[in-house]
Specification:
three-stranded mixed β-sheet; alpha+beta; globular; Glutaredoxin
Length: 80
């Protein structure tokens, strides 16, 4: 996946060199952010509003077909 993926139209990346975290402010979603903070990895958070059904947005489902709330992407082609 690259930054031209539709998910970045819906949730634009301001810092393309960082991991992109798509998450809801739920206990499990917060755990992912805590892990990234504890490991010192640079990341950019994107809030996914599950009450507005954003986890079922076609761009989100293209990367996360199970529509679980948390998704981490490097924003780069994963074959690189």
């Amino acid at each position: 996946m690259t930054l031209d993926h539709p998910i970045f139209t819906r949730w634009p990346a301001q810092y393309a060199d960082r991991l992109q975290l798509f998450s809801a402010p739920t206990p499990n979603g917060v755990k992912v952010g805590i892990m990234l903070e504890e490991t010192g990895l640079a990341y950019e958070p994107h809030r996914v509003d599950i009450m507005a059904n954003e986890s079922h947005d076609p761009a989100f489902l293209a990367l996360n077909p199970s529509s679980s709330q948390d998704l981490i992407s490097s924003g780069r082609n994963e074959s690189e």
